[in-house]
Amino acid sequence: MENKKTIIFHIDVNSAFLSWEAVYRLRHLGGKEDLRKQTAAVAGDMAMRHGIILAKSIPAKKYRITTGETLAEARQKCPGLLLVPPNYGLYEQCSQAFLEILRQYSPLVEPYSIDEAFVDMTGTEGLWGDPVKTAHKMKDQIRDTLGFTVNIGISENKLLAKMASDFEKPDRVHTLWKEEIPGKMWILPVRELFFVGKATEKKLVNLGIDTVGDLAHTDPVLLKKHLKKHGEVIWAFANGRDISLVQPEPPANKGYGNSTTIPFDVTDGSTARLVLLALAETVAARLREAKVRAEVLAVGIKSYDLRCASHQITLENPTDITMEIHRHACRLFEELWDGTPIRHLGLYAQRVRGGAHTRQMQLFDSADYEKLEKMDAAIDRIRRRYGIDAVRRAAFLKSPIDHMSGGISREKRTVDYEKIGI
Asked: Exposed, middle or buried, 94 (CB in 10 Å: 0-12/13-18/19+)?
């Protein structure tokens, strides 16, 4: 019996955040101007120190504006750049609508990020026909139904499908079958290969490796010598090798963490400990929701001059209790902090485990952990029913610190369009 040819689609929304914002303004707010046709970008709030470019229009690309650069850098290139605040609540809705259409074509859909996904289309030719024609049908349905465009890459594996989707944009379908690798992928600059960042590119260029084809034909032993395991991985990618499968169900988290950029430099320990309490609230809640406990906790600090430091501890008893996590976080912070003004704090829970848990009693530990667990459970129930602001600790009542910090900050989740004046 002949094996079916594996067919993988990678679907990538074109300028996702900007496109979603543009469609929402045009279709729901009565907007007249299409942001996608303007020199525009979605960017964080510089006043909140989240001032980076998150997405940009095609006209903005002409000014060499790039995702991840600061607003100051972008404005130097284009003083008239139209800036749009992020609205992650909207993005999440658009992402779900996008995924629902993909699932009409195959049950094997793996969300890869908020604006891209893999679909395993193997064996669906009898239902949908030729893969390229099917991709065009899928692409056009997303555009006609939801109002935004996507690129679709098609190949035998996830790596090549992702590489194909990044070819000419927007609103295109591209193939990258293995026999097409020399003509379509090997000619690309090595920086275009998935998993090759700026630091790796610099090392490769120093070795005389300028294109993906150069990398594919380099001795992997040499690459391993200079780049260790990463060298072997990118050599395999340059040769189109990838054995990863499309996974509709995400793998279990190996860790949970949250971090926050503080609107002002923190120079005193009491404020830093309050930020850590806010992070402990969100991290512990996520642990409890997943029904796991953390055995390792870590705290990360980024100072005002962008220097980073971290410190971790292995707990004698894995925990998901907010106040216990905060207590350990404060201890880590005090051991780590040298008094330099703080810009950013992070709290990370690692080596998680589920199932039944028996606590090892400590002779001089007088905390009532059963009572703390019951209190956390009650707070979780109230917040699920009435919202995260229904219960907050008194320490936050007159504080500028958000009592549930970390992740996507509150000001990025919604936008007051009346203030903007669409």
From this structure: buried
In tens, the pLDDT along 275-303 reads 999 999 999 999 999 999 999 999 999 99
What is the pLDDT, as a whole number, of residue 47? 58
Gap between the terminal Cα atoms of the chain? 60
Q: Which two tokens stand for residue 288?
A: 């409890």
Q: For residue 294, which of 284, 302, 304 has the smallest C-alpha distance? A: 284
pLDDT tens-digit readout, 221-260: 999 999 999 999 999 999 999 999 999 988 878 899 999 9
Report CA dihedral (144, 145, 148, 149) to the nearest 10 degrees: -60
Q: Are β-strands 150-155 and 116-120 bridged in parallel, bridged antiparallel, or unpaired?
A: unpaired
Closest Cα to residue 278, out of 330, 334, 315?
330
Q: Above 90 in pLDDT, residue 413? A: no
pLDDT of 1: 42
Largest CA distance in the chain: 71
CA angle 397, 402, 408 (to 5 degrees): 160
* Token digits of residue 58: 């095609």
Active site residues: 116
- The region of weakest confidence among 104-108, 360-364, 388-392 is 360-364
Question: Kindly report the CA angle at 37 between 58 and 116, in degrees rounded to 5?
Answer: 50
Average pLDDT over residues 330-343: 95
Averaged pLDDT score across all residues of the chain: 91
Contacts of residue 347, defined as CB under 8 A and 6 or more positions apart, other chains included, come to 257, 258, 259, 276, 279, 280, 283, 297, 298, 299, 300, 325, 329, 406
Q: Which residues are CB-neighbours of 200 under 8 A, at least 6 positions away? A: 227, 230, 234
The β-bridge partners of 308 are: 302
- Report the alpha-carbon distance of residue 59 to residue 241 in Å, rounded: 35
